[in-house]
Amino acid sequence: MFLDLKSIFVNENSSLPINYELNMSEVELSGGFPLQKPVSISGRVFNRAGIVTLKLLLEVEYSAPCDRCGENAVNTYCFDMDRVVVNHLDGDDLDEYIVAQDMQLDLDELCRCEVLLEIPTKHLCSNDCKGVCNKCGKNLNLGKCSCPQKELDSRFAALDQLLNND
Ligand SMILES: [Zn+2]
Ligand SMILES: [Zn+2]
């Protein structure tokens, strides 16, 4: 979606509501397509005392296998965006401003970048996901497996020995 911001730039105290959905289902991340549900974008762009600000809330539903246990997990992430929009830049820091060339703003491109930047790199079904047993592969969130714990103990013992050697 392209936003025409001419009327916002020239009229102080003007405001334009934004409410739309962005399809990012074709975006491939970690070998899958986790953004099947359109990204929900809402907020407004407004001119206060000559300064144009874009204020958005982005809501992303991320559906992919959990990094630890491999079960499919759906997480919703919300990001705030609060940036000043300028129609030209005089050598200022680009990161702080959004440049709307000819007072046109490519909102899709902007939101797409923001989502890719803000999505957590770790995707877990829950923060205390126990993962899978590396021996039998059982999902330990469903309960303990019957693998003997001995091997783990002896590893610790060996480490203990190493640490206490000197
Ligand atoms: Zn998990
Ligand atoms: Zn096991």
Report on the structure:
The protein is of the alpha+beta class and 166 residues long. It folds into two domains: 2-129, no CATH class; 130-166. The chain has three helices and seven strands, in the order βαββββββαα. The strands form two sheets. It has a five-stranded mixed sheet with strand order 2-3-4-5-6, with helices on one face. A two-stranded antiparallel sheet has the order 1-7. A hairpin with a 6-residue loop joins strand 4 and strand 5 (72-86). The longest helix has 14 residues, at 150-163. The model has no long low-confidence stretch (mean pLDDT 90). One zinc ion is lined by residues 133, 135-136, 138, 145, 147.
Strand arrangement within the widest β-sheet reads: 2-3-4-5-6
Report the biggest beta sheet as strand number plus sense, adding barrel if it closes: 5 strands, mixed
Runs with pLDDT <50, length 5+? none
Q: What is the domain total for the residues?
A: 2
Rounded average pLDDT: 90
Principal-axes shape call: elongated
Report the C-alpha radius of gyration, rounded: 24 Å
SS elements, strand count: 7
* Main structural class: alpha+beta
| Cofactors and ligands | zinc ion
N-to-C CA distance? 66 Å
Beta-sheet strand percentage? Answer: 25-35%
